[in-house]
Amino acid sequence: MKKLVAATLACLALAGPAAASSDRTLDVVAPFEVKGPDPALSGAVFQRMGIAETLVDADIDGQLRPGLAQAWSVSADGLVWKFPMRSGVHFHDGSPLTAEAAARSLRIARDKPGLLDKAPIAAIEAVAGAVVVQLSEPLAVLPAFLSEYRSQILAPAAYDDDGRVRALIGTGPYRVTSLTPPMSLEVARFDDYWGVPARIGSATYRAVGRAESRALLAESGNADLVYNLDPASRARLAGSATVELLSAPLPRSLLVKLNAAHPFLSDGRARRALSLAIDREGLSRAVLRYEAAANQLLPPSVPLWHDPEAAAPGYDPEAAKALLQALGWQPGQDCILRRDGERFSLSLTTYPDRPELPLVATVLEQLWRQIGVEVKIHSTNSSAIPEGHQNGSLELALFARNFALVPDPVGTLLQDYAPSGDWGAMGWRHDRFESLIRGLARGEGGAQQRFESMAILQRELPVIPVAWYRQTAAVSRRLNGARLDPFERDFGLDALSWRD
Amino acid sequence: MTDRLSRTTGRRGSRRVGALLVLAVVLFAWLAPWLAPGDPYGQSLLKALGAPDAAAPFGYDHLGRSMIQRLAAALQLSLLIAGVAVVAAACLGVALGVLAAARGGWVDRALVLVSDSLLALPGLLLVLILSALIPPRPLAFGAGLTLVLWIEFFRLTRATCRSLLASPGVQASRLLGFGRLYLFRRHLWPEIAQLLLTTAAFGAATGVMTIAALGFVSVGMQAPTPELGLMMVELMPYWREAPLTLLQPVIAIFLTLLGLNLMAGGRQA
Amino acid sequence: MAATGYRLLQALLLALFIGVTTFAMMRSLPGDMAWRIAAHRYGYDLVDADAVRLVQEELALGGPLLPALVQWLTDMVRLDFGTSLVSGESVIGEITHQLGASLQLAAVALALSLLLGPPLGILAGLKPGGWLDRGLLVLASGLRAMPQFLLGLLLILLVSVRLGWLPAAGHGSAGHFVLPALTLALGLAALSARIARDAMAAVAASPFYGFARQKGLSDAQVLWRHGLRNVSVPLVTCLGLQFVTLVEGVVVVESVFGWPGIGHGLVHAIFGRDVPMVQGTALVMGLTFVLLNALNDALQRRLDPRGTGR
Q1: Is C51's Cβ below 8 Å from some Cβ in A?
Q2: Global pTM value
Q3: Touching C: A residues 330-389, CB under 8 Å
Q4: Is C168 on the interface with A (CB under 8 A)?
Q5: Which residues on chain C are in Cβ contact (under 8 Å) with B218?
Q6: Superfamily of domain C92-309 in the CATH hierarchy
Q7: Residue C48 contacts A, CB cutoff 8 Å
Q8: DSSP string, A71-92
Q9: B57-75: pLDDT as tens digits
Q10: Final residue before a domain boundary, out of A158, A193, A211
């Protein structure tokens, strides 16, 4: 017991001021857990921490650029892609990067859920120092697919014989010194890095799930770089002397998914009525606390797809009521609309992982009640949404969709709306839209086709865009060179340095 | 001697204070919605985090919902779940306790073993596991808490009944040929009843605390249900903007637990 | 020896209960579960039907009930909890890792509480009714009405954010220990202070204590020779009661402070329907608790050989 007491005292003595000591390790905090060394599980964190890299990279504007591949080329028929490897690149265990190692990594990644397993890939091979991908049909966005975190290239020694990832051995500017799932990761500068070496010698990553806790960590100076701040904390931190707030628009939208096969929602006018009843301005001011009202699916941060001339979304509960009346709905005694003895009552599924979603849901419930539509909120695990989509039981769902898993949103659009997808349209089909998107994915068409397809979505409303997201991070004022990547590929660690 | 005397009177006094506190909380929970009519779910975003006014004497939360309404609804929910669980646990515990004491033998040993083994599983854990098993949360909490709380009732009843059943009074009644029901009503119940109140108050405190703790670590009630732990999490980011709003559920739970604990008297653990 | 046997039986029954419940959990939500696991594994807004199909194949749910239950329980007895449905790592490996962090926290908290509670209680007990005694009573009742998460929240806001003295959450340096350990310790200290106070007051009022003072021993000598040993017996009994608070506290406090221990792991596993992890964690927590109680029994017998019947 005495020893224990002594140890406690020692701990306490060390604790106080030592906690703020300048050991100069960069502390990064974000909500994403480190589930294990497999890129399919937590590759996003590894990519952002600069541990593992992909064949193709993207810059801060989302333009593709060479990564571990020097360049890329495609055959005339669009079926054979060639990615010659960069030379002089070493993995963290000292072994050289070869086309064979890269091809193996990609083949293993393809066996796991992700983008590659859905792409029409016939074979991935190493031929004369290049990775060669054979397709069964053309896919113009293949380089973008290969820039995604699940397509990371790891060293041969990282895998066991069954292709399971046993250790995280990448090529990035930082190498892992300790990986303790689910909450922390420590890295140190990799001196043999092929590019410009990082300036800060070591960094830690901590997964902190609760938004309030993250904000407190930033506020109390216990973390240098804190990602995904909630709206309320953002307002509070804006006046802080220790941190600076960075904010960037994200290609992520807050959407209401509607089951267009549902008898209440099958008519486009009913979907329009629900959209007209949403006070987007008020909602984004009150809940998200920035101007983010969405008048189309994709935000201005995706300039190729965002139509700057699109009309404002409009908030007109009276027009919404009129539309529903034209469809035969009449208000009942409890102010809820009725038709043929049925009440206009639907369930709205959402999930609490993003703290603003249940809040937005409660606001939507009130707004829709004003036009006589009753909504029961069902805040549960996020998987209830794709599950309800698959078994057809879903009525309404509220979620946030990232359109830039790969820098080009066409992949996501193809998956979600041509004709339907777990996180996109449900019970909806539009031939013109489908042919436009399929063409764009093959590499045919340009701005006109893109805007036309987006206009179709906004007219037909298989989903109702509600708001666009912004990423907000708190950066310690002791740091220089912090920037936010709107495509959420990078924490930008290699560009950071200490101020003094 | 005087010390003991003053302590018993002191204890009785603090029990009375506790009972009054609990009564006040219960009255608030059921009367407040009636005094300041409204809806715990109804929002007016313009009034988000607004100061108290006539319609909402306790101010508004971050979505402009009346705090008095939400507090009352949250207290009702917690007290109802805890109350139902305590009643169920008391029935179960007393029945099994009397059975174990009266029958003895292997019935007794088996029941004691089961209760001891369940006791080895921390209550919070038990409620957590059940809430993963039974989807509707209030039901899961009720069932889980019952499963936690019956043990205490069981142990107390069993211990009391064992000594009572061996007492001369009961032996005499038995010899006189009185039935089991009479034995229970005449000899056992008056003794057990005294213990019940203390145990029940303590059990209710455990219940209220568990529900709030699970809400706070996001495995309890789901938004937008008004629940004390959940309300604290929701309001925590606004602590600098609206500290008094955050303080309200904190005070509510503190007073409830203080009242129940005082009612339970100097009972430990 | 009989007591040890009884504890063993208890542990066995506990294991059986956990095994059957987690098996029921595994079986009760098969459709929903594959979805939840996939969501937890691949990210909450990336999950799709393909990922779920893979998870379903991997889990191989289905088949007749009884043989599956027997297999499940046999695996458990062999301490083979399988692999986590989320990370794919072995459950036992993850748990041993987490258990280390939890035990560290619990030990520091317990030591801290013993440093705070009993000394204050003894001082109060020496002068029953004095200002320290009264103050302590009010403080203890206040602390008991303060759930741990509330205490944690207040400590974070006050010490960490307002004053900026200590980290609000996380794990790694000694500074990270203070707030979670203090949160746990304050509740424990309130209880042990009460018990020490009552025991000390009883001892101080006893004839042998008065006699010892009449013999001419100094206050400190009397306290040392006659007071402490008699106070220690109820304190050790109380230690047994504190383990519940400690184990439960670990679940809540770890979640609040983001401490990577077994309690945090459990909340997480339940949220993600990671049944093997739930099973392993619940079992380890339950068995640790039984073990602690058994040790406490033994300690009690050492301190008070007169023996206490159960």
Answers
A1: yes
A2: 0.74
A3: 351, 353, 381-384, 386-387
A4: yes
A5: 271
A6: MetI-like (1.10.3720.10)
A7: yes
A8: --EE-TTS-EEEEEBPSS-B-T
A9: 888 887 778 888 889 999 9
A10: A158
